[in-house]
Design brief:
Elements lengths: L1 E10 L7 H13 L4 E4 L2 E6 L2 H17 L4 E10 L7 H14 L1
Antiparallel strand pairs: 1-3, 1-4, 2-3
Helix pairs in contact: 1-2
Organism: Ignicoccus hospitalis (strain KIN4/I / DSM 18386 / JCM 14125)
Protein name: Thiamine-binding protein domain-containing protein
Family: Belongs to the UPF0045 family.
């Protein structure tokens, strides 16, 4: 499994607020029944392959285009681990546990 973070930046919307368009992007993810977490700066999605990550990116861009967005900047980052299953919650818990011990 892969953890992929998407940062979606719709440009040229005539508004500094883009939460409605970010919600459209997250709706694409939700409708695929994928595990995800929305953060203040992006959305992390658990995916079975990098091919799926690209297909999801394409679908998000198409949705935003259909909503009238003329330009989208997207940043994608992937966490790939081969020795064990990646888990979003466990990654955060591990850091918080270490903070409690310090």
């Amino acid at each position: 499994m892969y953890l992929v973070e998407y940062q979606v930046l719709p440009l040229g919307t005539c508004s500094p607020s883009v939460s409605d368009l970010v919600a459209e992007a997250v709706d694409v993810i939700r409708k695929r029944n994928l595990e995800f977490r929305v953060t203040p700066m992006g959305t992390v999605v658990k995916l079975p392959s990098l091919e799926e990550a690209g297909a999801l990116a394409q679908e998000i861009v198409e949705r935003l285009r259909d909503k009238g967005v003329k330009r989208v900047v997207m940043v994608m980052r992937a966490d790939v681990r081969f020795d064990k299953e990646l888990d979003m919650d466990k990654k955060v818990e591990a850091v918080l546990e270490k903070l409690e011990k310090s």
